[in-house]
Amino acid sequence: MAILEQPYLDLISDILNKGHLKGDRTGTGTHSLFGYQMRFDLSKGFPLLTTKKVAFGLIKSELLWFLRGDTNIRFLLQHKNHIWDEWAFKRWVESSEYTGPDMSDFGQRALHDPAFKESYLSEKKVFCQRVLNEDGFAQKYGELGDVYGAQWRHWKTRDGQTIDQIQNVIDGIKQTPNSRRLIVTAWNPEDVPQSALPPCHNLFQFYVVDGKLSCQLYQRSADVFLGVPFNIASYALLVHLIAHETNLEVGEFVHTLGDAHIYNNHIEQVQEQLTRQPKNAPSIWLNPAKKSIFDFGMEDIKLQGYDPAPAIKAPVAV
């Protein structure tokens, strides 16, 4: 195995040294660069950061959620994954049915008001329990709209049909591996206004050469400290899964970023991360008995040889 995360550490350094100070939708403010590319050779290991612990179980369950075509957070909550809670919770507290304490601007207020944070966490805990235990409530308020699962597996056409982009791209890799149309897109301008969060990682393309499968992702908006480590590992895992089904070796994951930003309240965290020495990358085990990527469960994907530095916590900008 080899050290694979240096491109990510270089990205952090470049944003700190050259980034532009910008406002943003969340009101937090960012240091930002536009147009950046990282390359990871997946044949040399799995690019999960070692300079801070990244929760691989959350990455697995989120990717499996996408691949199921699911857009309801209930599946995630069943696997103790809370990374999409805030967007569903926002829909609940902004609805006419919500009668609890005022939760307006909860993301920012929780950062600065300890009493409010306690109330917010209590309300969110109740919300998650209701999504888990009440079918009607989950159907109405656990739903995020046409986010990744819907766009990947059930793209809606004007005539009322759906397109399974993931299955189509797998078929294309098997049947026409030299095609330049091995593309999946999540960005649909018609659906953006109704989405809880319009797709950040919005288009990816596969490339086959010398028996190896590579993938390039275009990500329009990149939360470099919290989101990008997940995105790198998630798409690396997707390449492994599709290579497994199509009987190919893994090649490169190429990560192209539009607005790559570090939130102003993540600066201390990334500075701490840069003081740490990266270690050899871990590896991935996939259950050889599973032939289709749609058959994989949590137990069929395992991380081997992962020895990271401790996690570094930071608030999510909603």
From TrEMBL:
Homodimer. Pfam families: Thymidylat_synt. This is Thymidylate synthase. GO terms for cellular component: cytosol. Belongs to the thymidylate synthase family. Bacterial-type ThyA subfamily. Catalyzes the reductive methylation of 2'-deoxyuridine-5'-monophosphate (dUMP) to 2'-deoxythymidine-5'-monophosphate (dTMP) while utilizing 5,10-methylenetetrahydrofolate (mTHF) as the methyl donor and reductant in the reaction, yielding dihydrofolate (DHF) as a by-product. This enzymatic reaction provides an intracellular de novo source of dTMP, an essential precursor for DNA biosynthesis. (6R)-5,10-methylene-5,6,7,8-tetrahydrofolate binds at D223, A317. GO terms for biological process: dTMP biosynthetic process; dTTP biosynthetic process; methylation. It catalyses: dUMP + (6R)-5,10-methylene-5,6,7,8-tetrahydrofolate = 7,8-dihydrofolate + dTMP. Residues 7-318 form the Thymidylate synthase/dCMP hydroxymethylase domain. The gene is thyA.
